[in-house]
Backbone:
């Protein structure tokens, strides 16, 4: 019996080991299968450009042609400049980015042709942050105007466009002026003891942009420059796209978009989505219940959702700046489509994200250039000072702001020197590119087109001595010589930035208030030249941008 018992035990142990080995083998097989699938997805088009009459960048497994970005050897802007300069004399070149085939266009006329004349072939943006067809209320980012595709984008653009006209900006401008009236005393108090106050510029301008979006979009009064608050902290978490989990989601959206959509995964954390959804829903309920009307973005979107906003030809509007982009016919044709609740929340969300990051980045680099170019800062200060005298104690108005020509020149040059790295478009149906000079080939459906903005803006062919901060490029005498297809801070064509008027109004109003009371200077921490943040991230500065605000009084 003992012998039989031992035999049974041995058999049992062998069976358990066998079962464990089976599980291990199955796990290994699954891992190998997944890796094989990823490998196939990433490398399936590595030879794509070999049949095209254009040069293309080398391809590395997994990284494609963008290895220097993904390994954080370069910043996105520096990478774009590097590859743009590498292919001098070439109108188009190809590259791969994690399974995506990209045509980079260096020629302004081809950019104009694709973005404007043949826009119907390139209606959409590259689907990076989710599936625009996902109707789940848990997913918001894919419902924003930036992410929507085809007819959904056309309908939403036409619905939102009347909310961003000059007359609507004029009504909202007073909210920014009221904010400035609170901001400047806070800064003066901080500078009272020493006559100056030092800030890390990205943090400083992010707080300002956060507060302006809070009042102009959400109807909230916060003072983030004075102290942290929940609204600011939630926004900061939302905009931290450099986290590992976010990078994993991005790769998931690129390689397995359908699976990510089925799992209802959003690029933004659920915590932030729920927070902003709650704020927006409460604001809407309160305004509906009490008949509250406030000239801010939530009110405009509420009107747009009800179909009460229409695009009218406006007369008597001031010239709002060289960088402003005009609305195309797409945004002027009412569709009668209504927004769902989640679509409504998504548009509020993207308005917040654009203001929180993009506008604050522009102001950060503008302050940097003014600190380094004191003669230019003095000249714009004198214009601001003269305007303040003419106002004779009255508050700044929308029309008066846009009469300051040199301020507009300074802002326009800041946007030239420090724009987004590149703008993309997705080819939605096969397109024959023909430059009329012998270059002819097919851009296939599903491929992406890049407009290398940073490279074009720093090209001496279009902007002599491009590394110099020179607002005179945009003087009355010189700006007529600029090819608008070589100046793309807000994009080009029907899919340009819908909020350019608001962004320029905000940037100018903030710089007006700051320069009237403070001189921007370097301090011991100022980095010259700046080292941009490396990796596939937005425009930023390694180790921060530190400057000093010195009281003028």
Residues:
């Amino acid at each position: 019996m003992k012998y039989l018992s031992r035999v049974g035990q041995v058999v049992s142990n062998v069976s358990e080991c066998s079962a464990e080995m089976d599980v291990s083998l199955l796990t290994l097989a699954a891992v190998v299968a997944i890796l094989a699938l990823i490998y196939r997805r990433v490398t399936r088009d590595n030879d794509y450009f070999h049949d095209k009459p254009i040069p293309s960048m080398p391809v590395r497994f997994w990284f494609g042609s963008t290895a220097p970005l993904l390994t954080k050897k370069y910043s996105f802007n520096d990478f774009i400049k590097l590859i743009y300069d590498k292919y001098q004399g070439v109108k188009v070149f190809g590259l791969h980015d994690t399974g995506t085939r990209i045509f980079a266009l260096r020629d302004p006329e081809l950019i104009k042709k694709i973005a404007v004349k043949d826009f119907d072939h390139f209606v959409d943006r590259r689907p990076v942050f989710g599936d625009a067809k996902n109707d789940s209320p848990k997913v918001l980012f894919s419902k924003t105007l930036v992410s929507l595709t085809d007819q959904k984008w056309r309908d939403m653009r036409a619905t939102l466009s009347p909310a961003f006209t000059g007359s609507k900006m004029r009504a909202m401008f007073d909210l920014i002026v009221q904010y400035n009236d609170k901001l400047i005393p806070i800064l003066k108090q901080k500078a009272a003891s020493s006559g100056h106050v030092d800030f890390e510029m990205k943090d400083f301008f992010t707080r300002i942009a956060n507060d302006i979006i809070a009042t102009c979009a959400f109807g909230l009064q916060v003072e983030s420059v004075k102290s942290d608050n929940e609204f600011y902290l939630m926004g900061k978490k939302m905009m931290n796209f450099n986290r590992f989990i976010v990078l994993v989601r991005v790769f998931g959206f690129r390689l397995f978009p359908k699976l990510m959509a089925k799992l209802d995964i959003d690029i933004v954390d659920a915590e932030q989505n729920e927070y902003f959804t709650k704020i927006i829903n409460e604001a809407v309920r309160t305004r509906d219940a009490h008949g509250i009307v406030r000239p801010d973005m939530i009110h405009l979107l509420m009107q747009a959702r009800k179909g009460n906003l229409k695009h009218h030809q406006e007369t008597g509007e001031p010239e709002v700046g060289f960088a402003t982009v005009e609305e195309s016919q797409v945004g002027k044709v009412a569709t009668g489509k209504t927004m769902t609740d989640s679509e409504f929340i998504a548009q509020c969300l993207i308005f917040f994200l654009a203001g929180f990051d993009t506008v604050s980045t522009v102001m950060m680099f503008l302050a940097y250039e003014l600190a380094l170019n004191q003669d230019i800062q003095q000249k714009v200060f004198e214009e601001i000072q003269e305007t303040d005298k003419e106002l004779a104690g009255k508050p700044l108005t929308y029309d008066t702001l846009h009469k300051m020509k040199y301020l507009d020149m300074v802002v326009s040059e800041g946007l030239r020197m420090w724009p987004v790295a590149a703008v993309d478009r997705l080819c939605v149906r096969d397109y024959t590119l023909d430059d009329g000079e012998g270059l002819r080939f097919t851009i296939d459906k599903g491929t992406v087109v890049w407009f290398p903005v940073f490279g074009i803006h720093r090209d001496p062919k279009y902007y002599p001595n491009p590394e110099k901060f020179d607002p005179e490029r945009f003087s009355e005498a010189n700006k007529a010589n600029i090819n608008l297809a070589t100046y793309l801070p807000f994009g080009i064509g029907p899919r340009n930035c819908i909020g350019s008027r608001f962004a320029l109004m905000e940037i100018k109003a903030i710089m007006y208030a700051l320069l009237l009371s403070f001189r921007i200077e370097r301090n011991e921490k100022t980095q010259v030249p700046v080292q941009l943040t490396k990796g596939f991230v937005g425009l930023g500065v390694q180790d921060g941008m530190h400057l000093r605000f010195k009281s003028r009084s």
